[in-house]
Amino acid sequence: MLSSLPEAIGILLSLEGLLVLVLGTVLGIVLGAMPGIGSTVAVAIVLPFTLTMSQAPAILLLLAVYAGSVYGGSIAAILINTPGTPQSAATCLDGYPMAQRGEAGLALGWATVASVIGGLVSAVVLIFAAPQLAAFALEFGPIETFALILLGMTCIVSVSTGSVVKGLMAGMIGIFLSTVGGDPILGEMRFTFGNWQLFAGFNLLAVVIGVFALSEVFMRASAPLSRVSELVAFSGIVLPSRAMWKGRLRNLSKSVVIGNLIGVLPGTGAATAAFISYAEGRRSSPNGAGFGKGEPDGIVSSEAANNAVTGGALVPTMALGIPGDAITAVMLATLTLHGITPGPKLVDDNPTLIAAIFAGFFVINLLLLPLGMLLSRVAAPILRVREAFMMTAIVILCAVGIYFVRGNPFDLLVMGGAGVVGFLLRRQGFPMAPLVIGMVLGPTLELTLRQGLILTDGNFLAFFTGHPIALVLAIAALLALGLPVLRALLRRNAA
Amino acid sequence: MHRIANERVIVQLALLIAAAALYASTYGQSFSASDLAQSPMFFPRIILMLWMGLNVISLAQAVTEGGGGGPIASWTRIGAVIVAALIYTNVIGSEGFFIPSVLFALISLPAFGIRNPILVVLFAVAVPGALVLLFNHSLGMPLPTSRFTYLF
Which residue has better confidence, B50 or B34? Predict the structure, then answer.
């Protein structure tokens, strides 16, 4: 991969490459700052524009929007006490009290520097960890891959919000949806009921955008109408001086490590990382007593961790083809649309592309500092845009996005249906991430299970007796599944 | 009564019936492979069985706990938005992108509380119009056009 670096830098320095990096980061920051849009919807809105691009710029645009939106969420969190994205919710706790006492610029300065450092370190982790993990995974046969996907699915379910049963059910629904259409071995049609539009199965992106973006619009329509928030006084970002960092670097380092570690685990996501890091910061920081009252360490804990997740989450996505969350699932689907097969061979088969993506991700995180400082003033008035305009625009933009994926109006119907089903399920507390991940991983899970059964003459137990890696992964999957049950039992005993 | 006939139970029941119907549909079809692992229905049956098993547990929880869903602030608003969105996604293919988008915005904006008619009409025309101009006439990636004109 290193030998491809000069060619990759050439891609980044081309006019298209530079435009994509800058415009993508700008779009990400602005979309992330708008409450209600969130990273998944931001990435989905930008998706159709990538279809006219070549592979590297397309993925870089999505990455720039992803990283930019995670940072952009902190602008709304600090200025109007409403997180632009769920991952910025912990930032509100200290960011808004700082803004209320006239330090909005400084609070955003802490958030910007912490986000940039978190993102940069995660880019380094991605550059070094993904190829190593991919090289290790190259040894995997179908049985190990089957066990690995089982582990990924159980991790996602066990850390999902809501009950484990509902998380598992959502995963099963997602896996089932992936079985509609041609059988992966024999090509015979399943669950199409004579409808030729289903021969190729459900369009993943139509389902993703339906259950996340469209169902969010319906959720908003079912809730009381929100009022336009009042902005606190703000005249631009003020970066913290070197002296202000005294005694805070340890908290920053810890938050970055937490973000990276949590990011690598499938399904955990930036919001979880931000809250875990915030809790750890409050426990261990010398300024812990001030958390919740406008303490900069609180902002640093949350923002460094949530941006550190971005690179970490890309490690299993790029190295194993296992998406950690809905955003990385959308990215995997985009890779497929551009003719790239995600998985352990991705790094070996596309060294220039991967080098460009990794180097570009580093540059995107560097760009967050100047662009964040420039855009925070512009983004602040956008926070006052009424919910009605945003929700209507989301539906229209999602329709455009889905139509362009295959140019098939049937996909719009799927998106509409997925939106209604997603709305009904979300109202009952079903998490949507396992459904999407199930749909992404379903085909590989089926293929590896059936190949494994052929290899072992139909003996499922032989999956684990003759394959130590598969055994370890299966035990880890069982532990991941048992953990929430154990936690609930301990909680009940303590009560 | 409310313990049984509430939104949570109805949704769980609908999911269970759907899974059972799909499971039943896996029988009575002829496939070329007779071997268990080679059968196209081998994997879906496992998934549907797990779905139904988990659904029964979840349904039992729903019946025991009752309630669910949380209140709906305005049935008129959510009904209007869902119906408008479903019709919108249904008719883009036949009626083009622009006209259904304008009509959807004309319903959605007032539903979400915009009362200024000029603002509603301006937004409803400007946003889809800008997208048609961008994709159909600048980027050369045409959105579906209406039966009346090839321009939008």
Answer: B50
For residue range A112-124, what is the model confidence (pLDDT) as tens digits? 999 999 999 999 9
**Alpha helix segments (H runs only) across A214-268:** 215-222, 249-264
Instruction: Supply the mean pLDDT for chain A.
Output: 85
CB-based contact A404:A48 (threshold 8 Å): yes
Distance between A486 CA and the closest CA of chain B, angstroms = 18
HEC per residue, A370-422 = HHHHHHHHHHHHHCCCCHHHHHHHHHHHHHHHHHHHHCCHHHHHHHHHHHHHH
Among the listed residues A385, A267, A381, the one whose alpha carbon sits nearest the alpha carbon of residue A324: A267
Q: Which whole-number Å values give the CA distances from A49 to A36, A174, A204, B96, in the listed order?
A: 21, 27, 18, 20
Enumerate the residues of chain A whose CB falls inside 8 A of the CB of residue B61. 163, 165
Q: Does A173 touch chain B (CB under 8 A)?
A: yes
Name the percent of chain A lying above pLDDT 90.
26
Residues of A in contact with B50 (CB under 8 A): 168, 172
What mean pLDDT comes out for the span B130-142?
A: 87
What are the structure tokens assigned to A422, written together? 């997603």
CA angle, corner B56, sides to B55 and B61, nearest 5? Answer: 95
Residues A314-344, buried b or exposed e (16+ Cβ, 10 A)?
A: bbbbbbbbbbbbbbbbbbbbbbebbebebbb
User: For testing the chain B interface, which of A165, A222, A445 should be mutated: the one with the most B CBs within 10 Å?
Assistant: A222
3-state secondary structure of B94: helix
Residue A293 has pLDDT above 70, yes or no: yes
Q: What is the value of pTM for the model shown?
A: 0.84
CA distances from A224 to A85, A426, B75, B113 (A): 20, 17, 11, 10
B73, B75, B76, B78 alpha-carbon torsion, rounded to 10°: 80
Condensed to tens digits (0 to 9), the pLDDT of residues B20-34 reads 999 999 987 777 656
As given in the structure block, the two tokens for residue B118 are 């000029």
Residue of A nearest to B55 (CA): A169
Tokens of A490: 């301990």
* Of residues A46, A31, A8, the one with CA closest to residue A362: A8
Q: Is the minimum CB–CB distance between A338 and chain B shorter than 8 Å?
A: no
The two three-digit tokens of residue B121, written as one number: 């009409």
Of A190, A389, A450, the CB nearest to B37: A450
Helix %, strand %, coil % of chain B (to 5): 65, 0, 35
Residue A386 clears pLDDT 90, i.e. is over it: no
What tokens were used for B60? Answer: 């039992």
| Phi–psi pair at A111, nearest 5 degrees | -65, -40
Q: Does A46 touch chain B (CB under 8 A)?
A: no
- The contacts of residue A219 (CB under 8 Å, 6+ apart) are A423, A426, A427
Q: Read off the tokens for A445.
A: 């899970």
Residue of A nearest to B129 (CA): A396
Task: State how far the Cα of A130 lies from the Cα of B40, in Å rounded to an integer.
Answer: 34
Nearest to A172 among B38, B51, B101 (CB): B51
What residues of B are in contact with residue A188 (Cβ under 8 Å)? 31-32, 40
